[in-house]
Amino acid sequence: MSGGIAMAVRGRGGGGRRSGPGLYGAAASVLAGLENGEGSLKTLVYGSSFQNPRPLYALASETLRYSDVLDTILGAAGLLRIEKKLQPLLAKVLVYDLLFGKGLRGGGRWKALVLKHQARLKAELARLKVQKKVSRNEDLLPPSGQAEQAPQIPRYVRVNTLKTHLDDVVDYFKRQQYSYQGKAGSMEEVCSLSRKKFFLDSHLPELLIFPPQTDFHDNQLYVAGHIILQDKASCLPAFLLNPPPGSHVIDACAAPGNKTSHLAAVMKNKGRLFAFDLDAKRLATMSTMLMRAGVTCYQLAHQDFLTTDPGDPKYSQVRYILLDPSCSGSGMTSRSPVEENTPLAERLQALSGFQRKMLAHALSFPALQRLVYSTCSIYQEENEDVVWDVLQQREKDFRLVKVLPSWSHRGSGTFAEAKFCLRASPKETLTNGFFVAVLERRPTGADEESSSGYFSPSSTTAVSEAENREGESRLVPKKKTRKARAAL
Fold this sequence. Notes:
By secondary structure, this protein is α/β, with parallel strands linked by helices.
């Protein structure tokens, strides 16, 4: 066992948790993160600054479970109409604990405000039970059969190569009585994972695959930042951008930060990584996570990426941009359905308009050579349509690049080059729903004439199996690999 792993096992590492909001405020923030598609419930809970994640997880998950019931009660009681300063998600959390939980145990002035309406809220709950002809609270919930049929996505664990090495982590899990099965050969093999068996992913050389719902949030390697719990599809953008050490890179919509830490690992912490986000709270949480992961090359920017000046000398050497803008989050299987006030078509139109602006702005950086555009959306309006519309305007300068030829699930749409893009889904790739497109500046002169359409076989972004092997040797130093094998 290496010194880094041993250090993680001896102590919790990574520093203590910062003080943060109370339980109800923290739960409301987690629910807001879910609505915004920032991560799964567990990722948001354990990535928060709240000191005790277990009651936070229980409160947030149970509030989600009763979400439709709470919406009905809140609407009938008129609580949000009467108390205009009370935020809807905070109200939902407070009313859940009042009516279905252990009773309000804190909450300060918000507790006092909700308790003023306690009689009305309880009366609306009783009225709802009469309407539904049920006597128990649990009987108000919808049938659970549909949830039981949801696809089972494996637990993906990205080895943080800034702090440790792949073989050392594999060795650690072996010592914890896990059985290493080598590199996964097929989806059928991955689907067959059970108990304490795990694979190495076939596409990403630093990604391990464990059975679904394996929980590592209390594992000391996770707490110390040696491993990152990150869905495979979410690992694709940084892997495909592939900025070499010393690069200047922009992560345009960085929070919650998993992709940012992955970029830093690819860059070996050498260069400059500009991480943008408009939300100060998310940026602060991300800063804590990046420090725990050992990232040192980043520079946080509490700023709307659209307001940046591409001509600013600070960004004159930015050759790589990762753009993962706000989206519908429709591909995230761990995200509970959230009732929207805006019709879907109208919401997608607004989101895709924003996404087009972001992509067009990113392509205006003068030194840019390669850009990855990604979303956790399943909708063509946010994916292929956005990429194609912007490329139509910049076709003289940029082109789509075909990546990962071995990836079976490709983009779809009304233009031929959509197949150069990647799609991911629970059924096709055993991941969350995702979309990735790689754009590259067109070569000039003779290089341009030798290329064929949008696909350039010599392109550095056409990641082949040979490049996968090269990436593996880069992420796991040969000396360390030999040492680790000897230890095994």
